Amino acid sequence: MPRARRRRARSVARHGWRGVLLVTVGVALGTVLVVGSLAEIHAQSSTFRSATDSGYGALAARLVDASNRTGTQLGQLMAGASGLTNQAVPGSARDVLEQGLDEAVDATAAEATQATQLEPPSPDADVGERFAGVMADRATAAVDLRTALDRMLGMSPLPVAGAPSATAPPSTAPLISIGQTSARLAAVGLLLQRTDGDYRRLTADIRQQRLPIRLPRSVWVPAPAPTAPLGAIQLGAAAPALAASASLVPIHQLVITAVGLTPPAVATGGPGTVGDGCGTPMSTVPGAAPTVLPPTASLDVGVTVTNCGTVVESDVAVSETLTLADPAGATPPPAGAGGSGSRVVVTLEPGSSTAPPLAPLTVASGYRYTLTVALTIPPGQTDPTGSTQQFLLQIAG
Predict the structure, then answer these.
(1) Which of 14-23, 313-322, 328-337 shows the lowest per-residue confidence on average (mean pLDDT)?
(2) Is the backbone of residue 372 left (phi > 0), alpha (psi -120 to 50) or beta?
(3) In CATH, which of 2.40.10.10, 2.60.40.10, 3.40.20.10, 2.60.40.720 is domain 254-395?
(4) Does residue 107 come out as left (phi exceeding 0), alpha (psi in the -120 to 50 range) or beta?
(5) Which of 102, 168, 225, 285 could serve as 159's disulfide partner, Cβ 3.0–4.6 Å?
(6) What does the DSSP 8-state code read for residue 346?
(7) Nearest to 261 by CA among 271, 250, 249, 246
(8) Which secondary structure element, helix H or strand E, spans residue 112, and what is its range?
(9) Tens of pLDDT along 77-133?
(10) CA separation (Å) from 69 to 103, 152, 313?
């Protein structure tokens, strides 16, 4: 090969290797930059995730502390429920039990809601979803516990002070048996034991994955479970004990505590009003001396009904009945004034009173009438005293 051609070949070879070297160096530098950028992004992402996890854990820990207090208070309530007594302060045994159950329902509902509001941002893995599930299950258990006891004892959630009455309507659901209650309470205990296990597995997984989430211990059914107040065995056995408690036995007592007439009676004659009470209720009957009213064509009867018992009473019928009391052979009164009546239905919570609006009654001057005001007593009320009031009325001519 001529010398000039050999020099050109060597020059081309040198230039080719130089190009390959430049490309290789460029690729290497690009790889270094990409890897470095990814490492930086990963480092920043790890820092963000760690901060998110730590922040979530701090907020969740507060909810766990609140849930622990709720569980402790509910356990203490159930442990002593069968021994509650009626007192002026804080109130009847039924009120104390219902208030404790209401507080547990309200607290667990708030804790469950707050647990769902801790994210976004979400912690690593499925910690947020599992934690919210534990709180939701405890809230469900509290509701099921209250519902079962209310249905057995004839109780209902207490009205919230300052809230519209419609927010806590009286329960009209039929009562359930002791056996049904035991089964429902045992199911509540099993649910609470399961939530304890779910929470325990959650915290174990957090530690295994080395997540920077620090959650305190939380157990509603401490070992040994068979003796824990909120465990399945103790809750299932609570129904017979609560049903046998003299302080928690449902008491049915409806009384007509006041009756007034409009127009009011004149000074002479029988009584124109009736004042009654829960302590020593009474039922009046027409006396020999009539209650004399001034001349009028219409009579309004104002009646107050009081629930002196410990159970919500629903669909209570309150009636007024007016019948002629003139002797046989007397001239009949004008049309429409020979007697009438009306009826209303009310629902009363324990300790409450109501004055149902009864329709005006048509009367005629110069005639006598027997007025009967009555209410239908519930099946569980054995003493009807105070459920009827009667008057012998004379409309002045």
Answers:
(1) 14-23
(2) beta
(3) 2.60.40.10
(4) alpha
(5) 168
(6) E
(7) 271
(8) helix 93-116
(9) 999 999 998 876 677 898 899 999 999 999 999 999 999 998 777 777 789 899 999
(10) 12, 27, 34
Closest by CA position to 273, among listed 353, 379, 130, 391 = 391
Tokens representing 260 are 């007034």
User: pTM score, two decimals?
Assistant: 0.65
Q: What is the pLDDT of residue 272?
A: 75
Half-sphere exposure of 40 (CA within 13 A, CB side): 6
CA-to-CA distance for 156 and 101, rounded, in angstroms?
Answer: 10
Which residue shows structure tokens 């994210």?
119
Contact criterion met (CB below 8 Å) for 242 and 248 = yes
Non-local CB neighbours of 137 within 8 Å, separated by 6+ positions? 191, 194, 195, 198
* DSSP secondary structure string for all residues of 256-269: EEEEEEESPP-SSB
Domain boundaries, the chain: 41-160+168-244, 254-395
What is the dihedral sign for C-alpha 94, 96, 102, 108? negative
Q: What is the mean pLDDT of residues 372-392?
A: 93
Instruction: Please check whether residue 81 is in contact with residue 148, taking contact to mean a CB–CB distance below 8 angstroms.
Output: no
Alpha-carbon torsion angle 200, 202, 203, 205, nearest 10 = 120
